[in-house]
Design brief:
The structure is a single chain. The protein is an alpha+beta fold. The protein has 2 domains: 121 residues, 2-Layer Sandwich (60s Ribosomal Protein L30, Chain: A), CATH 3.30.1330.10; 145 residues, Phosphoribosyl-aminoimidazole Synthetase, Chain A, domain 2 (Alpha-Beta Complex). Helices cover 31% and strands 28% of the residues. It contains 9 helices and 13 strands. Strands 8-10-7-11-9-12-13 form a 7-stranded mixed β-sheet, sandwiched between helices. Helix 3 links the parallel strand 4 and strand 5. It is globular, with a radius of gyration of 19 Å.
Length: 309
C-alpha cells in the first residue's frame, strides 16, 4: 500500500461538521466560522530528520523549510497565512543551540509573511528530530482556488523551474503567496495546487479531483539547471524525468481557460519579470496524463514522490 492509497483508506468516513467547506483532499481545509468576508484555511505539514533534512544542513534553513511548506499550501488556495503552531519531537541527544537556530530560520520567514507563531508542543521522539507545523490562514469568500475546477480545454501552467530541488532549492524555495493572490485577483483560475510531490503526482491530484485528463509537452517543461547537472552524474534519470517526478519544487501548478492563456502570460511578464511562467500543456477529456515528445504521444506511467510505496 503506497502513501496515497493509505490516505484514501484513512479518509473514508471522516467526521465533519457545519464549518467544513472543503475537507480532506485539497491543499488546505476550508472552514466557515461565519465571518462576513473571509473563510479560513487550515493546514498541517511535517519535516522529519533523515527524510526531509539532515543535521549536517544549516539549522536555520531546516526551520525555514518547515514553515515554508505550509505557506506554499496556503498559497495554492490563493490565501493569506495568519498564525502557526509548531510541534517539536526531539531525541535524547538534541542540541539546544541547534534547535534555537531552527527557530531562528522559522521565525525569520514568519516575520517576512506576517505570520504569528502562537505556540505549539514539544515531545520526545527516539532517534530523530521531527517538526510539525500547523498554519491557519484566510481567503475571501468565494475566492478559494481548489484542485477540482479544471475543465477540458484549459491551459496548464507552472511557475519557476522544475526538478533537481535536492541540490538546494528544497531548503530555500519561496512560497508563491503573492503570485497566487495576484492570479486569483486578475484571472479566473480554475484549479491550483503546489508542487510538493512532483509534477506527475500533483497534476494527477488535480485530474482526479476534476474528473479530467491532461496532455503535456515535454519541450515546454521548464527543466531546472540543477536537474540537468544531476542528469550528467546519473544518466539513468533524464532532466525531463526529474522535472516530472522530483519532489519539493514548491511551485504553483494551475489551469485557466485556454482563451486566457496569452493574456495571462503577457500580464505575468510585466508583474513578475524575474519569475518564469510556462504553459506546459492542456486539460483534456478522459483520464490520465498523455506525454507528447519527439516520439509522439504516449501515456505517462511515472508518478511523483511517495514517502512509501
Amino acid at each position: 500500500m503506497n502513501e496515497f492509497e493509505l490516505i484514501a483508506r484513512l479518509s473514508r468516513g471522516l467526521p465533519g461538521n457545519s464549518t467544513v467547506v472543503t475537507g480532506c483532499g485539497d491543499d488546505c481545509a476550508v472552514l466557515d466560522f461565519g465571518h462576513p468576508e473571509n473563510l479560513f484555511l487550515f493546514k498541517t505539514d511535517a519535516v522529519v530528520e533523515g527524510v526531509h533534512f539532515t543535521r549536517e544542513m544549516a539549522p536555520e534553513k531546516i526551520g525555514r523549510k518547515a514553515l515554508a511548506r505550509c505557506l506554499s499550501d496556503i498559497a495554492a488556495m490563493a490565501g493569506t497565512p495568519a498564525a502557526a503552531l509548531i510541534t517539536l519531537g526531539l531525541p535524547e541527544d538534541f542540541n539546544a543551540g541547534f534547535i534555537e537556530k531552527i527557530y531562528d530560520g522559522l521565525n525569520a520567514l514568519a516575520r517576512k509573511h506576517q505570520v504569528a507563531v502562537v505556540g505549539g508542543e514539544t515531545t520526545a521522539n527516539p532517534g530523530r528530530i521531527f517538526i510539525s507545523v500547523a498554519v491557519l490562514g484566510t481567503v475571501a469568500r468565494g475566492k478559494q482556488v481548489l484542485r477540482s475546477g479544471a475543465r477540458p480545454g484549459d491551459a496548464i501552467f507552472v511557475t519557476g523551474e522544475l526538478g533537481g530541488s535536492i541540490s538546494e532549492k528544497h531548503l530555500e524555495f519561496e512560497p508563491r503567496i503573492a503570485e497566487a493572490q495576484w492570479l486569483a485577483r486578475h484571472f479566473s483560475i480554475h484549479a491550483m495546487a503546489d508542487l510538493s510531490d512532483g509534477l506527475a503526482g500533483d497534476l494527477r491530484h488535480i485530474l482526479r479531483s476534476s474528473g479530467v485528463g491532461a496532455e503535456i509537452l515535454t519541450t515546454a517543461l521548464p527543466v531546472s539547471r540543477a536537474a540537468k547537472l544531476q542528469a550528467r552524474k546519473n544518466p539513468a534519470k533524464s532532466p525531463v524525468a526529474a522535472a516530472l517526478t522530483d519532489g519539493e519544487d514548491f511551485e504553483l501548478l494551475f489551469t485557466v481557460a485556454g482563451g486566457d492563456a496569452v493574456k495571462l502570460l503577457d500580464a505575468w511578464k510585466k508583474q513578475f519579470p524575474k519569475l518564469k511562467l510556462s504553459c506546459i500543456g492542456k486539460i483534456a477529456a478522459g483520464a490520465g496524463i498523455v506525454i507528447r515528445d519527439k516520439s509522439g504521444p504516449h501515456s505517462l506511467d511515472a508518478h511523483g514522490y511517495l514517502h512509501f510505496a
